[in-house]
Amino acid sequence: MNAPDVSVVVPVYNTMPYLTRCLDSLVEQSIGAHRMQVVAVDDGSTDRSGAELDRYAARHPGLFTVIHQANSGGPARPFNRGLDAATGRYVFFLGADDHLGTEALERLVTAADEWDSDVVLGKVVGLNSRHIYQDIFARNAVDVDLFDSPLPRSLANTKLFRRELLDRHGIRYREELRIASDLPFTLEACYRARRISVLADYEFYYAVRRHSATNITYLSRHLERLRTVEANVRFVAELIEPGKRRDAVLVRRFDHEVAKLVEDDLLRLDRQTQQAVHDGVGALVAEHLTDEIAAQLGAETRIRFALARDGSLDDLLAVIRQDAEVGVPATVAEGGRRYAAYPGFRDPARGVPDSCFDVTSVPEWPAKLDATGLVWEDDERGDRVLTVTAFTPIDDLAAHGADPLAVSAEEIPAETLVTARGATGSVLRIRFRAADLLAGTGVTGRRRAVSAQIGPFDPDRATGARNATGAAGAAPLRAPHLTGAVPLLRRRGARLYLLTPVRDESGRLMISVVPITPGRVTARLRQKLRRR
To answer: Is the pTM of this model over 0.70?
Structure first.
C-alpha cells in the first residue's frame, strides 16, 4: 500500500463541540481519503471527545488512526506521538478547536510538490475575534526568507511540513513545555528547510477562539509563561548565531511574548509573582535585548524593559500604573533629547537612570494618545460613526513633528482632527465610519487595534510592519478610564453584526466587529448565568 501524501496530526483534550467541526473538515477534504491519514491523539479527555474520535474512526475506516493516552498536561506529547505514527510524505498539525477549508490539504500538497518546498504556509484566519497576524499572507510566495520576512511573527505549527525534513533533523516537540511548544518546533523546521513557501489566495485554516476561553494557552499564568519564554529564547540563542538573523527572530519574542509579561495585568498579581516576573524579564533583557531589537520596540515596551533591567519592581509598577490608570505622561525636552516624565523620572529617592525614560529615538512617542470618550453618532452626512475623543499632553503637535497625526483601526483610517489646544495639552476628535468597519470585515468577524502614527496614514505601519528605520512607528491608543462601551447593531447583507469598542487586557482600545450567531448568543447567555 502506498504511503499517503499527508498525515494530519490532531491533539485532542476536551474540545467538544468544536471537535466535530474539526473532524468534519477533514472528512470533507478534496484531496480524498485515499491520499491522507488522520492521526488523532486523545490526551485523556474527560468530556465526549474520546468517544467522538472513535465514532469518526468507525464511520471512516482507514482514514482515522485514534490513539488514547493518559493526560500529559499539554499538546507536546500528543503531537510527538501523532508524528511518530504518521506515514505521509508531509505532515500537517491541526488544533482540535480549529478546522480547515475544503481544498486546504490538496492545495498545500500540490504547492509543496510543484515548488519542492519543505514548509508551506497556508493563509490562517481567526474566528470569534481571534487575532491572527496577516502580514505573511500578503501574497503567494514560492520562496520566503525566515530572516527577511514577517515569518518570525507567524511561527505557530499550522503549516505543512515535509516529514523527511523532520525525521532527518530529529525535530520534535519539547515535552517539558506545557504551552508554546510549537514555537521551537516550527522555528527549527523553518531554519533547516531548503525552501519555505506561502499560499495566500485561499482560506486554509480557521483558528477558533473558544467562547469559553478555557484552553491552557488562555489560562496559563505569568510564571508559566515566563518559564516558557525563557526556554524559547534560550532555544533561539542556541540555534542561531548572534547577529541580525538572531535578532530578526528574537524581536518577535520580545515585542510579543516578553512584552505581554509586563502589561497592565501585572498590577493584579501578588507581590511574589510580580517580583519573579520583574527579575525574569530583567535577566532576559540584560542578556538578549540588543540595540537593534530595542529600536524595533514601541515606547511603552522599551521603557518597561529598561525598568525591569535597571530599576526596581516598584519603579516598573509605577510606570504601568500611570499608563493603566492615569494616562500619557508629559514629555521633558532637554539638551536635544526627550524623556517620558513617568513616576520615578529624576526622583533622587529612586535613582533610576535617565536612559530608562529616553524616548528621543522613538518615532511614535508624540503619537501616544489616551481615549477619553466614545460615542456612536450621526456625522454631517447622516452616516453612523464611532467618535473617539482623545487627549495628549503635547500642546503643539506640529512642534514635535506630529502634524499630521493619523489614527486608524489597523488598515481602516479614521478622520482625525485637533479640536482644542491649551497649556495642558491637545484634544483630538477621531471618527470611524461604521460602514468602513463593516466593509473591511469578513463573515467571520474581526477585532482591530486602534493606533496613531505620525505623518500620512500608512497601512503597513498601522498593522505592525516595520518602516525603513526598523521601528513600527505607530502607538496604540489607550483607554484607561473607559468602561461600558455601547455596541452598535448593523446589518450587512443577510447577516447582523455587533460593532463594539473595547479595551484589551492591557487597556488598549480595540474595535470588535463580530457576526451574531447562535453559538455566540448561547455563550453570552452562559456567561451571564455564571455571573449570577
So the answer is: yes
